[in-house]
Specification:
single chain, alpha/beta, 3 helices
Length: 91
C-alpha cells in the first residue's frame, strides 16, 4: 500500500497538527475532540513524526486561549518528539 511506503520512507517527514478547541461560537466548523484521538496521535508520535497544535480561530490573538488549547493537546498521553504549532486565518 502506498501509505505504508510513505510511513516508512526515511526521507519523508511530516507534521500533523490538531485542533484542541472546546466548541464556542465561531468554532462550529470543527467536529472532533482531540482527546478522542489518543490512539491515532500515539501512532503518529510513536513513529517519530511531529505532533503539533493547530491554533484555533482566536488563539492567534488570545494567549489564554492558546495556553488552554496547548494544555488540552498535551493532555493526550502520548510520547511526542516535539509539540509545535501553526496558525492560519481562513475563516
Amino acid at each position: 500500500m502506498a501509505a505504508d511506503v510513505l510511513w516508512s520512507a526515511p526521507s519523508a517527514r511530516s507534521s500533523f497538527y490538531f485542533l484542541a478547541l472546546t466548541l464556542a461560537p465561531g468554532d462550529q466548523d470543527y467536529a472532533y475532540d482531540v482527546r478522542d484521538l489518543e490512539a491515532e496521535i500515539g501512532m503518529i508520535a510513536d513513529a517519530g513524526w511531529e505532533v503539533g497544535l493547530h491554533g484555533g480561530h482566536w488563539a492567534y490573538s488570545d494567549p489564554e486561549a492558546l495556553e488552554t488549547e496547548k494544555r488540552r493537546l498535551e493532555g493526550v498521553p502520548v510520547r511526542s518528539p516535539s509539540l509545535s504549532s501553526m496558525f492560519n486565518f481562513a475563516k
